[in-house]
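Posting for a labmate who doesn't have an account.
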Amino acid sequence: MRHVLFAVLCLPLLLSAHVAVTEPTPAFDTVVLQVLEKVAQRAIAAYNANDLTALRAEIAKSAPGLEDEAAFRRLYNDYYRVDFGKLSALRLDRKASVTHRDRGVLVYDAVFEKAPRAKINVNFTREAGELKIAQLRLERIETAK
């Protein structure tokens, strides 16, 4: 009985503590969106031009799994370039995107040569005060046959 009473009394405190530390979802900020899109567009243009040096310049040095050049080239040349090919169309998914000035996420619906339905997810971070891409992920959208 004491345990039940204790749980009933503590539950509101635990719930209110969780609510107090939860960060509210930021409003969609078109100014921040423009900044995020500039970085994303440079990276996507570099990918399309197969300019890995320019693409690498947009990616954070601390990006998970891309710490060395070999891993970077494997992902963008051997996997994405082979499986997706060049990008031919792009449309921002505003509902799935988050315009946070330090940790934004842009989600695009995309069409590639070898993947007619795809998504591009671009996650951002700040590195030495500069906005960089933490992850640029291409994802094929499978359709039922």
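Reply:
Got it, the structure tokens are right above this. Helices lie at 2-21, 30-48, 52-58, 69-84.
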